[in-house]
Structure formats: C-alpha cells, structure tokens
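Contributing new complexes? Match this layout with iron/sulfur cluster.
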Amino acid sequence: MKVIVAEKSGFCFGVERSLKLALSASKSVGRKKKDIKTPVYTLGPLIHNPQVVKNLEEQRIKVISKLANIQKGILIICSHGISPQILQDAKRKKFKIIDATCPFVKKAQKLVQQLTKQSYRVVIVGDSSHPEVLSLLGFSSGRGIVVSSVKDLDKVPVSGKIGVVTQTTQLIDNFRVIVSLLVNKTKELRVYNTICEATIERQKSARLLAGKVDLMLIVGGYNSANTTRLAEVCKKQNPFSYHIERLKDFDLTLLKDKNKIGITAGASTPDWIVKEIVDKLSKM
Ligand code: SF4
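Output block (do not edit by hand):
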C-alpha cells in the first residue's frame, strides 16, 4: 500500500508559536509540584487537538472555561484570541498575560475594530460558536453579525455600509458566495479576505492529493475547524475521504482494494500523530 502525505499539512506557524509560548511559561514556573507557586492556565484549549491538550496538562498547563473563581496565575491567550472585554477582566484580576493570539487573527481583530469605528455594519463569515469568531465579535462593540452560510443572510439588515471579514480557516468558496450576495444589502461593501495563508496552502494541497489517491484520511481533532474544512475540501474531490483523530477511529476494512492512500492533517495536528498513522499503514 502506498501512503502519500500532502505537501502542506499539519502544524501551522500560529499553532507552533502558541505551543512554544505556553511551554516556556510552564518552564518558567518550574515543573515539580513543590516549585509551583504560579498556576498556568489557557482559556479554552490552547489548540483544538485533544492529544496535545492532554500533553500540556501533563506539563501543568490547565484549561479553564472561564475566569470566574480563578484569582491568580499566568493566563495564556490561545491562538484564536479573546475579546477585549475578557482581556480587560483578566487584567483586572491581575493575571500575568501571555498573548499567543496568532498574528493573522490579530489582523482580523484590528480590521473589525476599524470598521466598527468607521460605522460599518460588520459581517463575520464563520462558525458562530468558534472562539476565533467570538473574539472577532467582541471587537465589533455589539454591531457584528456572524454569517456561517447563505442561510444566515436574513440576519443581516440592509445597511448604508457593510464591512466583511472571515474566520481565518474558512473555505474561500463559502466566503465568495456570501460576499456576492451581500452586495444586495448595501450601497457600500468593504471586503477583507482574512483567510490565512496556512489554511489556503493546506486546502490546496489536500485538494490536489485527494484527486490522485484511492482513499484520503484527514487527521485532526473533531473540534478543529480547519481540519473539518479540510475534510470538506477532500470529500468534494474524493468520496472516500474520512476525518479521523487517530487510526483506531478508522474502520480498516474500508482500505480493502485501495492501493494509494493520501493523508493530510489540520493545522493543529502534531507530526507524531501523522507519523504513527503513516508507519502503521505503510506496514500493511
Ligand atoms: S490556522 Fe492560520 S490563523 Fe489559525 S493559528 Fe494557524 S496560521 Fe494562525
């Protein structure tokens, strides 16, 4: 069986950066139980991969879902960013803050802030419950509207000026179609394509490979937006495309009569998980 890994896949720059910052914060407070005076927290999982989050917990980096009931410590802001309101809360509580927001997300946050200041109605194309989208929404002073697909366009009122940004991991086709319909809602439409380079490269590479192999595995957290988008891209190209977190999730009988297997991984999937899958499949 031939196993081919997509040219661009796995950890992106933003995820690697956030991991480095988190690990160095944990090192700075010491590893042994007796050394630890300052707890290290991430607000929500640092990245959307349960295996990595588990490893971080072993390094004493704890995931919290809200700031309430926590009084002190180091707070790492995840690559998806947080809203200015939550940041203010954290500062008020005197957390030592380490900002691991990906620079691409920061750029989108700034655009939302600028558009809001200039009285644009801000439309954010993305998944309404994703932390990145919630952070962007926080920069819109309550004037932002999240649109995940054309079905949500009814939520956007006719406005004098509309500004659009997108979640960094969106599919360009979805963004394009929403933008083309927003033209009917305003006289002035300002569009910023904030899909990040890592997403574009990974989607392009996955699409190419999916078209050349008998079966495609897309590896990454089930809660990872960018991995889910990669799976959608592959499925369009090849019906035998499967999103898995680990090889044990996959029904191996589906490999019957398949000679060429393609593998891609989301931006939050560590290399060791991909390697484990490639090694096992290559031996079959
Ligand atoms: S997927 Fe893009 S925006 Fe998200 S962390 Fe990676 S580089 Fe940054």
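Reviewers usually confirm one structural detail per submission. For this one: Residues 12-15, 79, 102, 104-105, 168-169, 196, 198-199, 226, 267 surround iron/sulfur cluster (CB under 6 Å).
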